[in-house]
Structure formats: C-alpha cells, structure tokens
Amino acid sequence: MIRLGLLGCGGIARAHVQAIQELADRCHLVVQFDSNPEQMRAVQALYPAVESAAAIEDFWAVPMDAVLIAVPNRDHARYVYEAAERGLAIFCEKPLANSTAEAQHMVEVVNRAGVTNMIGFKNRFAPAIEQLHQLLQSQGLGDIFAYREVCSGARLVDPEIGLEWRMQAHWAGGGAVADFGSHSLDMATWLLGPYVGALESLSVRLATFVLRHGVYPSNDDMALLDGRFASGALLSVLNSRVGPGRYEVEVYGARGFAMVDMNRPEGMRVTSYRPDQAIAIPPVSASRSTPWVRQLTVFLEAVERGEAVEPSFETGLAVQRWIDGARIQAH
Predict the structure, then answer these.
(1) Same domain for 142 and 73?
(2) CA dihedral in degrees (8, 10, 11, 12; nearest 10)?
(3) pLDDT tens-digit series, residues 225-249
(4) Which of 202, 245, 267, 317 could form an S-S bond across to 103 if both were Cys, CB 3.0 to 4.6 Å?
C-alpha cells in the first residue's frame, strides 16, 4: 500500500483525491498541506481519514512514499527539491516550472536523487487518445501531414473568480500558453514525434482580452501556435481561456483523417479518403476509468517497481523550453 502526501488542495487536487479513492486497494492519502485552511477542509470532506498539516514541517514529518504536488506553478520547484531530498517519488502538476532554467534544475535534482518522477499530462490517458495513439502506431493514416488542436476552457472568464493566480505571470508564468499549451505541446510531440521527427520551429501570437475587476491579467488569455516538424508536417494549435471548454485533436495523413473530441463519448472518428480502402480502427478501451485514475495507476506502478515513468520531468522540461521560447518570441 503506497502512502501519498498531497501538497496543494485546490480544484485540481480534488480530482487527484477522487482518483486515490478509486484506487483505495493500492494507495491511501496520509497527509495534506495547503496554506489555505479552507482548501484543506474541502479535501478532508472528500477524504476524512487524511491528516491536515498545520505547517510544511509537519507535512514532511508524516511517513509517506510519494508526494503529489498541485500548488501554483511558482512553488513546484521548491517542493520538488524538498521531496527529492527525502527520497520520495514525485508527481508534479503541469507545467513543470515557471522557466526553463528552473525546470532544468528540477530534472537534475530528481535524477541525482534517483527518484521516480512524473508530470501531469493527463490528457494522454483519455481512452480516445490512447486509441488514436494505437492508430498512429499501426500507421493506419499513412504518412502524417498535419496536427491540429483546440484546447480551451471558459472558467476564468467568470467575473466571480477575479484575478486568480493563473492570471498572474509571477505565479503562473504564461497564461493559456502555459496552462493549456503545455498539454497541447506534449500531446503533439508525443503522438507525432516517432513519425514526423522533432518539432523544429514554433511561432506564436499571444493576446489578453478580458478585464478582471478592472485589471488586465499579466499573462495571456489566448495563444495561437504554428509550427513545423522535422518531416515538414505542420502544427496548428489554439489555446484559450476565454472560449467554451473544448479539447479536440485532429491528425491528417496520406490515407485518411482522425479526430478526437473529448466532449463526445464515442471516442475517435476516422475517415478514409478512399471508401474502398478502409482504415482499421483500434478498439477503444473497455475500461470506464477516468484519465485521472489511469494516470495515477501508471504512477503507482512505477513507484512500486522503483522505475522511471512517462511522461517524466524530462518531458516537462522539453515542453517548458517551447513555452518559454513562445513567450519570448511573442514579446
């Protein structure tokens, strides 16, 4: 039974807690810490057995095997260092850090400590995305020509939210380009990399549109990413925190087209350009587990074996480089 500690108890943390409950036969949450006591009370309402630490020193004093880090981006590095120093396996929410230099140091620290580390690119674990991954592995679409994605959410437009930490560059780094774009860049490079090579160029346009209580956020509301892979295949991504909640992935190949819409239960849709040449579609997983549960399962298996796991901090560092490059270019 793996003992987990939770750092940061906001909305994302509660999704992790629900996954822990689903995997109660393999792990349990022993301690939590957040500087906001109300956040801890909300988690404890979901998971009454968890101990709430009054201070970070009290948190680290509780015996545990692994830590889940779900604090604002600026504090990721601090807690990664402290966990690695104690030899704990580490799961950290995305993006890995606020800068490439910081992310690079985090990778060096966990590698030196030899601890299992994983970053939270949960969209990889959606059943329809896994189905698309298998289709690409079978080369069912033929040569790949283009990747297109929309990744957005509208929660931060809510006037009741105000100027949240995600809207402040000193806490979060980038806005939509870091929050949603980290998922997008991971997804595109993970899915297509083996077939089109590395992402070699990326151009970006960032914009901030929505006033919060009369103040503009210090990072972006929307990002348009345009790139090219080594093979010449194209990348087009829209990341937005002012649009409807959407996650759509499209891949264009020589033989056909595949699309995943996360808001539709049927999974992946595939179209062959020639009706007489059907494309074999891999079966969608029969598991009803959420991406959060699938992600945690992979992490727990790696912790149990003391092995490396993907997506690792190295993957998070590669994505961070593209995010930072995009932000520098846009300014």
Answers:
(1) no
(2) -10
(3) 999 999 999 999 999 998 888 899 9
(4) 317
